[in-house]
Design a protein that fits this description.
By secondary structure, this protein is an alpha/beta fold. It contains ten helices and 14 strands. The protein has two domains: about 240 residues, Aspartate Aminotransferase, domain 2 (3-Layer(aba) Sandwich), CATH 3.40.640; about 100 residues, Aspartate Aminotransferase, domain 1, CATH 3.90.1150. Helix 2 packs across helix 7 and helix 3 runs parallel beside helix 4. The structure holds pyridoxal-5'-phosphate (PLP). The site of pyridoxal-5'-phosphate has 11 residues, from helix 3.
Length: about 350
């Protein structure tokens, strides 16, 4: 079996062990004579999977009982709207940090629904970077402060989370489960699953009880966090949640968050060291802000970048083209990306430079 070295930004590589396990019980789940996709979401088999996925998430991230763990639909993009709809009240202000493409999309939705203060704006800077703590102007009594912990397109990451004075709300779509952090510092965390959690189709939301209590009245039932915090309201994306349960179990087997962080740091260092070794490659982000998940870099010309992507694909290194809005090269090296893939990429970078440098 040939598995590609897959550097896709998302939907991204899944652990091969998880895919194989899913393949085994696809047609007949635990002797039931049907797949997990074909049975009631209220039956005992699926309920056990759903509960286990939540328990694994709690265990891995150290989530206390005063947070609800929700498996929703509508993507992280849906959350851009759900958050102000539920949590930005009449006459209130929400702080947002403008750090790149994803934060900008969150800001656009919040502005449709309420009043927004841009606490810091580094979104137009090149090389890309996250704002420094003393560059942020937070609003006293803000409804919440929103950050995008990892900008998947710009390849930058908050290394320490800011203290905004109001409940912190974070889009962690592209770096959740990659490094330890203190959940209790956040009012709400959300992430599309398709990078570090599982397949596309499920959006994970962690919301703190006291923050939930502050939500607006009159939100449509399906879009109200409380509906989902209270009970399993409607049909969840059952297959995606089933895969999430397996990915989280796989992660536990790799030493949990502390274990995977060490592997992630090593992979990222290997790649950034190769970028910095010569002038042929140029990192797209300021070193202090460099993402451990999405490594973005440039070559001396767009023409060479095109050739690089093509030759890499021919050598089995897939999906290295940077996002169309910024160009360049992007290697997404999420939890499930094996170290061997990064080693293969750095060797390929050496060879490509020898031929074209
Ligand atoms: C940081 C970040 N936020 C939000 C999104 C949007 O996620 P979705 O496609 O699940 O709406 C993405 C997708 O790549 C992302 O990387």
């Amino acid at each position: 079996m040939a598995r590609a070295y897959n550097f896709s930004a998302g939907p991204a590589i899944l652990p091969v062990e998880v895919l194989e396990e899913a393949q085994k019980d696809l047609v007949d789940y635990q002797g039931s004579g049907m797949s997990i996709m074909e049975m009631s979401h209220r039956g005992k088999e699926y309920s056990a999977v759903h509960d286990e996925a939540i328990a694994n998430m709690r265990e891995l991230l150290g989530i206390s009982d005063d947070y609800a763990v929700l498996f929703l639909t509508g993507g992280a993009s849906g959350q851009f709207a759900w958050i102000p709809m539920n949590l930005l009240g009449e006459g209130q202000v929400a702080d947002y940090t403008a750090t790149g493409s994803w934060a900008s999309k969150a800001i656009k939705e919040a502005k449709i629904l309420g009043k927004v203060n841009i606490a810091a704006d580094s979104s137009k800077e090149s090389p890309a970077r996250m704002p420094l703590a003393d560059e942020c102007t937070w609003t006293d009594g803000a409804a919440y402060a929103h950050i995008t912990t990892n900008e998947t397109i710009g390849g930058i990451q908050w290394k320490a989370f800011p203290d905004a004075g109001s409940p912190l709300v974070a889009d962690m779509s592209s770096d959740i489960l990659s490094r330890p952090f203190d959940v209790s510092k956040f009012g709400l965390i959300y992430a599309g699953a398709q990078k570090n959690i599982g397949p596309a189709g499920v959006t994970v939301v962690l919301i703190k009880d006291d923050f939930l209590q502050k939500r607006n009245e009159g939100v449509a039932t399906m879009l109200d966090y409380k509906t989902h915090a209270d009970k399993l309201y409607n049909t969840p994306p059952v297959f995606a949640v089933y895969m999430v349960e397996k990915v989280l179990r796989w992660l536990e087997g790799r030493g949990g968050i502390d274990g995977i962080q060490k592997i992630n740091e090593r992979k990222a260092k290997m790649l950034y060291d190769r970028i910095d070794k010569t002038d042929f490659y140029r990192g797209a982000a300021v070193p202090d802000s460099r993402s451990v998940m999405n490594v973005c870099f440039r070559l001396p010309s767009e023409e060479l970048e095109g050739q690089f992507v093509k030759a890499a694909a021919a050598a089995g290194l897939q999906a290295l083209k940077g996002h169309r809005s910024v160009g360049g090269i992007r290697a997404s090296i999420y939890n499930a990306c094996p170290t061997a893939a990064v080693e293969a990429l750095t060797s390929f970078m050496d060879e490509f430079e020898q031929k074209n440098g």
